[in-house]
Amino acid sequence: AWAQAVPGSSVTIYGLMDACVTSADLGTDRINGLNSGCLYGSRLGFRGTEDLGGGLRASFTLESGLTIDNGMLGQGGRMFGRKSLVSLSGGWGAVELGRDYAPAFYVVQPIDPMALGIGTASSTIWTGAASTTAARNDNAMNLLSPTWGGLTIRLQVAAGERGNNGSRNAQGVNMLYRSGKTIAGLSHTRVANATNSDHDRATTVGASHDFGAFSLAAIVQSGAWEGSRTAAAPSSATSIFSRSYRSYLIGGSVRAGDVGKVNASLKRYDDRTARDFDATQFSVNYVYSLSRRTDLYAGYSRLRNERASSYSVSDATTAYSGVTPGASTSLIATGIKHVF
Amino acid sequence: AWAQAVPGSSVTIYGLMDACVTSADLGTDRINGLNSGCLYGSRLGFRGTEDLGGGLRASFTLESGLTIDNGMLGQGGRMFGRKSLVSLSGGWGAVELGRDYAPAFYVVQPIDPMALGIGTASSTIWTGAASTTAARNDNAMNLLSPTWGGLTIRLQVAAGERGNNGSRNAQGVNMLYRSGKTIAGLSHTRVANATNSDHDRATTVGASHDFGAFSLAAIVQSGAWEGSRTAAAPSSATSIFSRSYRSYLIGGSVRAGDVGKVNASLKRYDDRTARDFDATQFSVNYVYSLSRRTDLYAGYSRLRNERASSYSVSDATTAYSGVTPGASTSLIATGIKHVF
Amino acid sequence: AWAQAVPGSSVTIYGLMDACVTSADLGTDRINGLNSGCLYGSRLGFRGTEDLGGGLRASFTLESGLTIDNGMLGQGGRMFGRKSLVSLSGGWGAVELGRDYAPAFYVVQPIDPMALGIGTASSTIWTGAASTTAARNDNAMNLLSPTWGGLTIRLQVAAGERGNNGSRNAQGVNMLYRSGKTIAGLSHTRVANATNSDHDRATTVGASHDFGAFSLAAIVQSGAWEGSRTAAAPSSATSIFSRSYRSYLIGGSVRAGDVGKVNASLKRYDDRTARDFDATQFSVNYVYSLSRRTDLYAGYSRLRNERASSYSVSDATTAYSGVTPGASTSLIATGIKHVF
Fold first, then answer.
1. Which CATH number fits domain B51-60+76-292+299-335: 3.40.980.10, 3.30.470.20, 3.40.47.10, 2.40.160.10?
2. Residue ranges of the alpha helices (H) in chain B?
3. Below-70 pLDDT ranges, chain B
4. What is the ipTM of this complex?
């Protein structure tokens, strides 16, 4: 089919450019480089909204993830890999169709003191994507409630691809409360395995409060990747989620001068299978704001592999993999983030 | 080479987001899913025009096709797969260079009651692309006449790629008349085979008229894919065009309330080779306009494979293939289309 | 990580569309076609700048290369393959991070009379990219001095990719003087080989002066691809740079009427290894400006392979390769270039 653009519409272009110099200690190796998106993933987006009258609105978002260091697309080369949604919203809530994060993400993202950057919460706390290697779900339908006194409910159903007969069908739900300086959220995720006979699942609870001079945050997740792991290999030495695990985060932020902020988190991953591939990770960063749109930053994260696993440290874009089994690994990074 | 943008130019961003829930009966299988572009293909485009004085204008269009459900590019991953043109136009007509539809498309598109959406005319009426699997021609030069009392002539010559020595060179021409409520068009297409020794060709005639409360439309095509089919296999069980065929469409539209419309078409494909892989297809949809830019829609199409063929139902983006040989197949879809 | 666009930012969309009809004589074969970017590479870009106060500015550029003839991305399918940079600049100069040309490019580009189009200087004068098949460096940090009386210094350090352990690390520097009608530049480039045991290098000197009715230009490069060539194969029959070479360009431009210009260059490539794969190339074009933004052009370039080499003629986008060994090769092209 074929159509002409209709007069009266307007499109907002927005984005974020984040480039950084990194040095990762992988145990035996050290890797130095120039990377994209240590603090926030680099992106270019297009969005617009139409007022349909009676409180009803039609909206769209098309958001590309990119890596500045080589000019390539992120998300495995997807053009609009970060977000691709069309939606209808009104006083009753919203319906969104396309590709988006799972509900668990929308609980973890506003609470993680590291803002899902250097030492991101998401490397040890599952944000609910159906794919074991991606952060978002294709073929998703989001149902959003209205906001009742700060509380919103989000439901997502993401169909597997054609011919998969239910394989990796995902369902997720969250309740998120935001009021003044407090954020509190709860989510549950469930993803079917390839034969739809078993499923991965996780329940996540988190909260943060801004006390003025400082803020505190905590997240707890109880999960089981029963659809993705076998009885023989209930854990993976490189991919952190096991057939039964608990994952914890505590952290917070402190203002440092007029335009600076120090953020830190301590994470504990408890593999509850016989393999016991536990890990502990500490992360800290300093963000200095040149303006509301432009920040300089430096960060450090260290992860201890407590047995033969080789879990890695991640920032907002890159997993610094190839860690020597059983070794500790760390990342130090400094960069610039510019929002437009 | 390298250049700076010149002040004074302006670029229009435009596009269309169409997402839909679909259920396709393939005979033995039924496939349910969330898809992109059932009614119109989702897209994001950039275009601009410069007035050169004396009625002369330079223009460009770069239009990406995309699939909302997974954030990927359409047209086999081409960045500007829908359209990529630079042109000069004036009182004498226009010259356009780049990638575009063939002239036959510009006859079928404004006449098909289904708007090339659910039950698109293009699945049984060839719109003239050189590739047997694509809808547009690369390396194209379009020559457009001025409009004389509603009549325009379009000529396209599309060179094959380097090293192909004339392989799949395409030529097409149309005459299109648009005046008030009447559209009438005629086109002829010719595409060379790999050795330039034979060619596919088709002649297409179509017309529609809007009578006010309703409109009527008809298209007839006589074609022969002699360059793409062999004497041993003059037809294909999955791809509809044979070494000799006739294809027919009748249909129309009826207003349904202030902002609704019902569109329907009946198509008949007559394979005139010994294999006789004929097909009959009926399609109907209902489009409800929330605004000039945003529609809700639902549609249904059913195709009967009359012998051992497994032709499929298509919408504006997807061919629901994998049909059981000889079985009837149908598609039911509902969605939202938002233009910006 | 995840962020909201900040109000107050603005993004400029810019680009260039260049389409052309070409005929290349490859010795035994002649190839005719419709191509993209004979004079300047076609592109679509996004850029913006934020004033941070005190003379400090944050800027970004995301520039896609594309081929109009097929709607595809250039630069091997990279999304922002032409340029992807975030930068901070002030009275002290600038720091830029991302993907960009090497410093040698910024000397050759403003001096080449052919504007790196049909018969581009860059086919016989190395513009400094680390990859032997690309024009730009990934993982680059550019350091730019302020401009002192027309003189600017540019330094680039481009890290190899992870795991390459210094492989193809590139460093380049230039000094570029621009004042009134004179441009003069000097650059040095150095790129490590795969084991960081040897390196490619080149020193480039060039100048041009506009005398009013005409301008003259000259470039000399002394180079050695010791990191990319072996002792056994110190030259390549198809790729022009050898383990030791000198490359020369002289040329200039003449105004032809109010809105026309004729540009020409004569290039000599002197392979100083025992293979002695020398070449001589003459190029001329005529550019007729319909406006400041839109040009029509025609050009011709002929390259003589003096021994068994099969070097090819290039325009701004395409190398017309497949030349019969030892044969002369030529390109004739005509097209339109539209800047927006």
1. 2.40.160.10
2. 103-111
3. 1-8, 161-166
4. 0.95
